[in-house]
Design brief:
It contains 7 helices and 12 strands. With 231 residues, it is α+β, with helices and mostly antiparallel strands. The mean pLDDT is 96.
Amino acid sequence: MGDGVFETLHLRPSGPWLLQEHLDRLARSAALLDMPPPDPDVSGLSASDGALRIIYTRNLLHVGVSEIPEPVLRQRRDGIRVLSADLGVAAGRRPPWSLSAAKSLSYANNFAARRWAARQHADDVVWLSLEGYVLEGPTASIVWLAGDELGTVPWEEAAILPGITAAHLLSLAPSAGLRPVQRMITLPELAAADAIWFSSSLRGLAEVVSLDGEPRTRSPWTPRLLDLLGY
């Protein structure tokens, strides 16, 4: 069970958004499981604001389309309350067989983290390394704004899943007068940032409106960056 990989894409009127980037990551994830690259048929698929999922196992390749769940749309609109939690691993140090850089179907631990947050009256979790560095969320990359720096965590250095939405946003940063940066960041540094977002394909950007119980002022950059991404 869980011996497979998947991708979730934002489905737009023009078709699957950032399709090639997602297919490339799907192939990289499959390679980490010693599986050949898949060739899913997504031709002709579109929606005004939908979700496209590609699921690939050793004996199945499935493509499905659905509506975006209302809680996801609400988080995009209203933001999220986030708690920090130690993941129990050192930054960039995983066992040789680790699938931390793969989008694998083994998401039980990820969902358990979000259920733990819900029991604490929060929406999501930012995972930390043993050294106190910010890593990622259970289903999202971390993006922050500090002055003119629009940053995210370098996936190879941190040994985390490469975030497609975050990488695309940083590629657009100069057009908004912002400076794209990939660097390791500690929790106190993140808390001091002007704005924090969780980025993923369906949410786009969900602004962190409280971190470890401390309310945060909403940023005027949230609608600007969502518009830049086409949400």
